[in-house]
Amino acid sequence: MLEITNLIKRYGQDEPVLKGLDLAVEGDSVVAIVGASGAGKSTLLRCINRLVEPTSGSIRLNGTEIINLRQRELRRVRRKIGMVFQGFNLIDRLTVMENVLAGRLGYVSLFQAVTRRFPAEDIERAFVLMERVGIAHYANKRADELSGGERQRVGVVRALMQEPEVLLADEPTASLDPRTSEQIMMLLQSLASELSLPVLINIHNVAQARSYTDRIVGLRHGTMIFDGTPGEFEKEALDAIYGGIESPEDATTTPETGTEERETDHDRT
C-alpha cells in the first residue's frame, strides 16, 4: 500500500508546487492523476521515488517511510518502485534484452552489472515478461530500431523486472500515436490486475483516464480537488480542474510536437 500524507513540495521561496497532498493507493488499483500543466502531476510521481526531494510530509510504501531514507536504504526501496517514462529512457545502442535486464541492476553485484552476467532466473523472467507484452521476438534487436510503442513496452518490462510493489507511469502515452496509446493503457490496466500491482498514471488524456483506470485524482495548482471513480468524473469536476478548458481530453502531447509536458526537476508540472 502506498500512503501519502500532507505532502508538500516547494522550490526555494516560491509557492508550493504540492500543497499538503493526501493519497492512499492499494491492491491492484489503477489511478489516473489528471490536471492542467503546472498542476503538480509529475512532481507528485517524482516525489514518490525521490527523483524530486519532498519538502515535508510522509510517503510510506507498505509501511516503510521513504522521505527520510539515506542513500543505501533509498536504493533498496527504489527497487520496489517501478517507473515508466514518457521519453522511454532506454539505452539505444543496447539490445532489448539488455535494456530489460537493467531492471535487475539493483539486485546484482557490480561485477555482474558491468559484465552483464545476470542470473539465469532473471533472463528467464525477462523472456516471460517480454512474451507477455509481445516483444520477445525483439530480444536481440537494438532499442533504437523499435517503434515508439515497442520502446514503451520495453520500458514497462524493465520496470516489472524490478518486481515492484507500486508502478508509476509518467505520461506513458504522450509520445505515442492514438492507437498505440490505447494499447499501452490497456496493457497497464491488465498488468495491474494480473500482478495485483497498484499503478499511478500521470496523464493528460481525460478520455483514456475514464476508460482505463479505476480512480481519477484531479489536481489544480498543487491541491487535490477531485478523488473518485471515472463515472463520477463529470463536467463540474472537469471545470474545477481545468478552469473551463473546453476540451481537456485533447490536452495531450502529440507525436508530431512532443512538447506538451516534458519536465525537469524544477518544472512545475
Question: If you had to describe this structure to a student in words, what would you say it looks like?
Answer:
β1 (2-9) and β2 form a beta hairpin. With 269 residues, this protein is α/β, with parallel strands linked by helices. It is built from 9 helices and 10 strands. The strands form 2 sheets. Strands 6-7-8-3-9-10 form a 6-stranded mixed β-sheet, sandwiched between helices. Strands 2-1-4-5 form a 4-stranded antiparallel β-sheet, with helices on one face. The protein is globular and about 50 Å long. The chain folds into 2 domains: 1-80 and 198-269, 3-Layer(aba) Sandwich (Rossmann fold); 82-163, P-loop containing nucleotide triphosphate hydrolases (Rossmann fold).
Write the layout of secondary structure elements.
Blueprint (H helix, E strand, L loop, with lengths): L1 E8 L8 E8 L4 E5 L6 H8 L7 E6 L2 E2 L5 H8 L2 E4 L11 H6 L8 H6 L4 H14 L14 H13 L5 E5 L7 H18 L3 E4 L3 H7 L2 E6 L2 E6 L6 H8 L27
Parallel strand pairs: 3-8, 3-9, 6-7, 7-8
Antiparallel strand pairs: 1-2, 1-4, 4-5, 9-10
GO molecular function, one term: ATP binding
Protein name: Phosphonate ABC transporter ATP-binding protein
Organism: Halomonas icarae
List keywords for this structure.
single chain, 269 residues, alpha/beta, Rossmann fold, 2 domains, six-stranded mixed β-sheet, four-stranded antiparallel β-sheet, 9 helices, 33% helix, globular, disordered C terminus, ABC-type phosphonate transporter activity, nucleotide-binding, MetN_ABC_transporter-like
Could you give me the name of the CATH homologous superfamily of the largest domain?
P-loop containing nucleotide triphosphate hydrolases
Number of helices: 9
Just give the CATH class of the largest domain: Alpha Beta
Q: Average pLDDT, to the nearest integer?
A: 87
Poorly predicted segments: 250-269
What's the structural domain tally? Answer: 2
Structural class: alpha/beta
Please state the overall shape, judged from the principal axes of the Cα atoms: globular
Straight-line distance between termini = 25 Å
